Amino acid sequence: MSQWEKFYSSYPPPNDYNSSLKKISAFCEIHKDKKIVLITSGGTAVPLEHNTVRFVDNFSAGTRGSASAEYFLQTGYAVIFMHRQGSLEPYARHFKGQELLELLEVVQNETGETQVKVQDSSIHKVLPILKMYETVKSEGRLIKIPFVNLPDYLWLLKGAAEVFSKAGENVMLYLAAAVSDFYIPPNEMSEHKIQSRDGALVISLHLVPKILQPLVNAWVPNAFVISFKLETDESILISKARAALEKYKHKLVIGNILQTRKQRVVMVTTDSSYDLIVTPDEMKAGLEIDKKIVDEVVNLHELFIKGTF
Ligand code: PAZ
User: How far is the CA of 60 from the centre of ligand 1 (A)?
Assistant: First the structure.
């Protein structure tokens, strides 16, 4: 049994597994004549106990995934947004926390009725986003599939890939989620809340089997698979990205550094690497690096479909 087969056999699929796959399958059928992208977004939680009180998590807010989803939708793609529950989502990301409340005001209309309206000074912000959201919604071009923990994420990705297995080059996988490399196998996990009275906690985290291996080579051999690589040490970013390409045989790794991920990424193929950058002035004007990434990736997908990438 391979490492990832062992992994899957030790966890049941998530409760909503079958309904999520039915949703993805119906979505793919409706949009079979379009380009479809599955975006993964946000971080995965790794439980420390079966009755989970504590888990290991990471920094990912889901900005990359949710912003990219909007730009793919703008170019006409149908988008399956597989995201960590509670992380940023397309369109809604513009109105985080208190922000929505700041945009609204209570007014009385001419007949004295109390109404809620968007403040005049905020209409220029709300209107374009609302219009894009309504268009996408009316066209049914976006579905969202939430996950919380690592096993659920891996089950859903495998299930989605099985749905795509019949699809061809029109399907893209844009794997922006920050997926844990480490986990505790269920048979080594405490049943109940780990007690502090037992002293300092020593846990041994095992390596998560690399899902890209079966994904690229067995489950979706025809799809355009893009993985992301996050590092904090610039000197190893490109070599690690290239090692992933050599190992898994997909076409493109997008590398980024934790602190500069919103200003710069490096596009790494088997024989080239080049930067995409947003300048401070572009940022001030509201341009997001995710727009540049998606524009580039959409062009590469077109070449991939033609067999020239
Ligand atoms: O979610 P976010 O916008 O805060 O961060 C995005 C990111 C850095 C998680 C993403 O660009 C990425 O590199 N994902 C892959 C991480 C990795 O497994 O190396």
Answer: 6
- Among protein residues, the one with the nearest Cα to ligand 1's atom 16 is 178
- Residue to probe by mutation, ligand 1, list 63, 71, 261, 289, most atoms within 8 Å of CB: 261
Can you tell me which atom of ligand 1 is nearest the CA of 41?
1
Q: Is the dihedral of CA 211, 261, 265, 130 positive or negative?
A: positive
The answer to whether 144 and 89 have CB atoms below 8 angstroms apart is yes
Which residue minimizes the CA distance to atom 9 of ligand 1? 178
Hey, which bits of 205-244 come out as E strands?
A: 206-207, 224-231
255 C-beta closer than 6 A to ligand 1: no
Residue of 64, 76, 80 lying closest to 132 (CA atoms): 76
Q: Mutate which of 40, 44, 59, 64 to test ligand 1's pocket (most atoms within 8 Å of Cβ)?
A: 64
Q: How far is residue 296's CA from residue 289's CA, in Å, rounded to a whole number?
A: 11
Q: How far apart are CA 284 and CA 273, in angstroms?
A: 27
**Tens-of-pLDDT digits for all 309 residues of the chain?**
888 999 999 999 999 999 999 999 999 999 999 999 999 999 999 999 999 999 999 999 999 999 999 999 999 999 999 999 999 999 999 998 888 899 999 999 999 999 999 999 899 999 999 999 999 999 999 999 999 999 999 999 999 999 998 788 999 999 999 999 999 999 999 999 999 998 999 999 999 999 999 999 999 999 999 999 999 999 999 999 999 999 999 999 999 999 999 999 999 999 999 999 999 999 999 999 999 999 999 999 999 999 999
Q: Which two tokens stand for residue 164?
A: 């795509």
pTM (2 decimals)? 0.97
